[in-house]
Design a protein that fits this description.
Organism: Agathobaculum faecis
Oligomer: single chain
Shape: globular
Structural class: alpha/beta
Radius of gyration: 16 Å
GO molecular function: phosphoric ester hydrolase activity; zinc ion binding
Number of domains: 1
Helix content: 25-40%
CATH class: Alpha Beta
Number of strands: 8
Largest sheet: 8 strands, mixed
Protein name: Phosphatase
Bound molecules: zinc ion
CATH topology: TIM Barrel
Length: 240
């Protein structure tokens, strides 16, 4: 198994990331990817960009140097399951949205509080995927949430970066992937890269998925056809 697109990456618009859009595209091209999602943090993160970053995303060309660029956001899940405070208008250009827990916007709490927040996100039509749900600080009722993902059209992300930076993530991500397999929930495998050199680096995640015999057909970004089909389903033509 391999990926053809990395749908979760950050640019210098979030100041703890270090490459420009062009550099991230160059990183994707160097890895042989055909598409990249630029998903900077929502404005509620301390160093996230102003909401104007998102309202102007449509000036980024659809394709740069043969790599399709998907305009995205990584929302911060806030207490109760609210997302970043921003206008609907500023989100108009956004084509792919992840929603994730980050300590700065949601202090790790109880399993019930995390599950309740994720349940609210499940119903939020602005969100396409749960970002790094394997984070052990945000324990939740995995079966309860994952079993409902198809009903609400949500993807689950297996975030390869988590394996390296969040202790205990491997076990959680394995359990999440097993449940996605059980409930036939499509996933995306991403790097969460914050610099050009790590775009497309998802070996840890792929190794785990292979270990549990995860079906390739359920990995949206594992082939050009599957990726194209997913975005066409959202009314977006990525290629040609
Ligand atoms: Zn994140
Ligand atoms: Zn991220």
């Amino acid at each position: 198994m391999h990926i053809v697109a990395d749908l979760h990456t950050h640019t210098i618009a979030s100041t703890h990331a270090y490459s420009t859009v062009y550099e991230m595209v160059r990183g994707a091209k160097a890895k042989g990817l055909i598409a990249i999602g630029i998903t900077d943090h929502g404005p509620d993160m301390t160093d996230g960009p102003h909401e104007w970053h998102f309202s102007n995303l449509n000036i980024i060309p659809r394709e740069i140097d043969g790599v399709a660029v998907i305009r995205g956001i990584e929302f911060n899940i806030c207490p109760g399951g609210a997302l970043d405070r921003m206008s609907e208008k500023s989100l108009e250009p956004v084509e792919f949205a992840l929603a994730s827990f980050h300590d700065c916007c949601f202090a790790p709490s109880t399993r019930a509080a995390h599950t309740e927040a994720l349940e609210a996100v499940l119903h939020d039509k602005r969100v396409q995927a749960f970002g790094h749900p394997g984070n052990p600080k945000f324990d939740f009722d995995m079966e309860h949430i994952i079993s409902q993902c198809n009903q609400y059209g949500k993807l689950v992300e297996i975030n390869s970066n988590s394996f390296a930076i969040r202790k205990g993530s491997r076990e959680n991500c394995t359990e999440i992937a097993r449940l996605c397999k059980k409930y036939q929930v499509p996933i995306v495998v991403d790097s969460d890269s914050h610099i050009e050199y790590t775009v497309g680096c998802v070996d840890n995640a792929l190794e785990m998925l292979e270990e549990i015999g995860f079906p390739e057909e359920l990995v949206v970004n594992s082939s050009g056809e599957r990726l194209d089909e997913y975005f066409r389903g959202r009314g977006l033509t990525l290629f040609g």
